[in-house]
Specification:
Two copies of one chain form a homodimer.
Chain A lengths: L3 H11 L17 H16 L3 E4 L5 E5 L9 E5 L13 H17 L7 E5 L13 H6 L5 H6 L8 H7 L15 E7 L4 H5 L3 E7 L1 E10 L3 E2 L11 H18 L5 E10 L5 E2 L2 E10 L2 H22 L2 E10 L2 E2 L2 H14 L3 E6 L4 H5 L5 E6 L15 H19 L2
Parallel strand pairs in A: 3-4, 3-5, 5-15, 6-14
Antiparallel strand pairs in A: 1-2, 2-4, 6-13, 6-15, 7-11, 7-12, 8-10, 9-11
Helix pairs in contact in A: 1-3, 1-12, 3-12, 8-9, 10-12
The structure holds N-(aminocarbonyl)-beta-alanine (2 copies).
Keywords (chains A, B): Hydrolase
Protein name (chains A, B): N-carbamoyl-L-amino-acid hydrolase
Family (chains A, B): Belongs to the peptidase M20 family.
């Protein structure tokens, strides 16, 4: 059995790297703080006798040898990057629980059949470089490496420059590192497990997600001298689109969600009518057909708003993640691992995207969820209990060993 | 008579300091570019035999002696700072036309009775440090110097730090520099003169203006996992307020204008429901009673929106400029100066605030407007014709000499 105290202590200690006054973590991908946690992660894994490979996307693979080196490793993992105002558990729990599994195996001198691998995927959050889950996505062949390296953040820094900047553009060609299965532990980031008083979610798939970039262009002019009738206010257009996005999600209740998360106003000055606004849209639903309908409604809304105000509108879909169904054998390993430990559980879909969403395309994959307080995530107040973190790590260990001895 | 070609050349040459690819100027107050234009301005004035005093707010006063040193100078002036995406004429025309007047007097060896003063007021735009027209406002005693120096930009840099940073915190106590009248030439920044085919606006006053800061606080959470019903989306609240501000202005047609010019979203990440939004409101109207009614409507809108979505709202009025009526003698000097030169003109109110708005509180003041293309200002495409710039400078010279020989 794993050591829940050691896991908790490791969570709390590493939360200092990028720790915020409000108790969260700001450790945005490929910043110097990300470099610090990566350096720490590498040292800890090497101390357990693992070899650590780094690919050209900065994905980190720590491998503990097994009895047989003719079979690909069984992987665990998640991400160590956070949102700008992220919590202490999102992603981090999956990596550090994997580390706790490695430590437990190491303490016991336990020899698995397959090698065991622990992965830290690059840029899961997508907060700095969109799309999210990019390291895993390129690994799985869903995005071309060249395209990914050329993506820039809002300051114009490319992903490749950022990788080189912190010394984490490794020499292993991305996608070359193989594994035979992947298990990801994560906080649910939603309210379901908590509401039902269950410790473990056996995740059978992930809902679909589509992201859009929109730029509205009107005419900058003086707020004091430009009569209301002569305005082409890009921000008024953005405001209407924000309402439309909300309404589109409500129109596909109860499962649809829709959000504008980012807005940039130009020139963003008190006495200038905004001439240009950039905004992002995030739509999610378990069914592709509904996402399709939401997209059609978004296009209609953009046209309508642009027409009303006299704006030019550019928009494009920047991410399209179809709904994912996880592997039956991996799900079964999680189910048995949960029963073995005796935790209350339920089967469920993931509302958020995860690295596992993409690894599912190339290897048998499943996920384990644990509850988080008030279903709150992407918030510095994000919280999970000591007991639930331990439960998640235990089920991760059990599932990996179950899969190994299948 | 002034030399319109020399004026135009000076406008175009100095537009290089902070010149933008789109033909505008980005010369935000107290940046290094502002320092460059100030250095240039000082050298040019000194070359004409003027003494240049700088006060603790960075306001620059160039004085050309007159026959009598027992009477306070007649001032001309405006501002050399610009919006982040400003045009080549807003403010700059008033200062450089004043310089052209000085050059003309110098070339002719003309001796005025009163000394003539040319002023470059600090931070007229208010784009970096709100409120706008701050240098003139402190000079006029409407804002306390300590309060003004403590104002910070959105990066937390105080006005005093910024003044010291570019070496323009002068040693003359602010408010000590006296003048007996002030004439400000400015582009109209609105569509009226152009529509009527007139070259000169004889400005009899300034409409009232109120500015507000609003912060809406909801709850940051994950866009993929947070059901629509459990959201407290601060950006949805901001969107509704933007609509309300527009509606409040329309409800007080035809003279009211209302604008949200600045929006800052936190954390501004695609997959985080915005937890906090800061936005600014700008209301204008020629009558205080209507501004009062607009403010009441704004308060009701904030309460309504916060209630609908479950947000906390903080708001405060950061600027209150009552309507201003200019001095009859100064207006008469402008009127006669216009007739003398034979330009088509009309009397009008200013839609925008100007340094003259504040100097009117301490000295007889009036303004001269010239048309700008499509009424467009606070835009890099802002434009005024060679002929109209020359006409404005000529009327400025005429008005000053008329007032001097009254
Ligand atoms: N789990 C998580 O927050 N992933 C980021 C991608 C998403 O927004 O779903
Ligand atoms: N003229 C001008 O743009 N002044 C800035 C203050 C205002 O917004 O009216």
């Amino acid at each position: 059995t794993i050591d829940p105290q050691r896991l908790w202590d490791t969570l709390m200690e590493t939360a200092q790297i990028g720790g915020t006054p409000k108790g969260g973590i700001c450790r945005v991908t490929l910043t110097d703080l990300d470099r610090q946690i990566r350096d720490w992660f590498r040292v800890e894994c090497e101390a357990l006798g693992c070899s650590v490979g780094i690919d050209t996307m900065g994905n980190m693979f720590a491998v503990r040898p097994g009895k047989r080196d003719d079979i690909a490793p069984i992987a665990m993992g998640s991400h160590l990057d956070t949102q700008p105002t992220g919590g202490k558990f999102d992603g981090v729990l999956g990596v550090l629980a994997g580390l706790e599994v490695m430590r437990t195996l190491h303490d016991l001198g336990y020899e698995t059949n397959a090698p065991i691998m622990l992965v830290n995927w690059t840029n899961e959050e997508g907060a700095r470089f969109a799309p999210s889950m990019l390291g895993a996505g390129v690994h799985a062949g869903l995005y071309a490496p060249d395209m990914a390296e050329a993506i820039t953040d809002r300051d114009g820094v490319s992903l490749r420059e950022a990788l080189e900047g912190i010394g984490y553009r490794g020499d292993v060609p991305v996608g070359q590192t193989r594994f035979s299965a992947m298990f990801e532990l994560h906080i649910e980031q939603g309210p379901i497990l908590e509401a039902e008083g269950k410790s473990i979610g056996i995740v059978t798939g992930v809902q679909g997600m589509r992201w859009y970039d929109i730029t509205l262009t009107g005419r900058e002019s003086h707020t004091g001298t430009t009569p209301m009738k002569l305005r082409r206010n890009a921000l008024l257009g953005a405001a209407r689109l924000i309402e439309h996005v909300d309404a589109i999600a409500h129109a596909h209740a109860p499962h649809a969600v829709g959000t504008v998360g980012m807005v940039e106003v130009r020139p963003n000055s008190r006495n200038v009518i905004p001439g240009e606004v950039f905004l992002t849209v995030d739509f999610r639903h378990p069914e592709t057909a509904v996402l399709e309908a939401m997209e059609t409604a978004l296009h209609q809304a953009i046209d309508a708003v642009a027409g009303e105000i006299g704006l030019a509108a550019e928009h494009r879909r920047v991410t399209d993640n179809p709904p994912v169904v996880f592997d039956t054998d991996c799900i079964e390993a999680v189910r048995r691992g949960t029963q073995q430990a005796g935790y209350e559980s339920r089967e469920m879909l993931s509302g958020a995207g995860h690295d596992a969403t993409y690894t599912a395309a190339i290897a048998p994959t499943a996920m384990i969820f644990v509850p988080c307080e008030n279903g709150l995530s992407h918030n510095e107040a994000e919280n999970a209990t000591f007991a639930d973190c331990g439960a998640g790590a235990q089920v991760l260990l059990n599932a990996v060993l179950d899969y190994d001895t299948r």
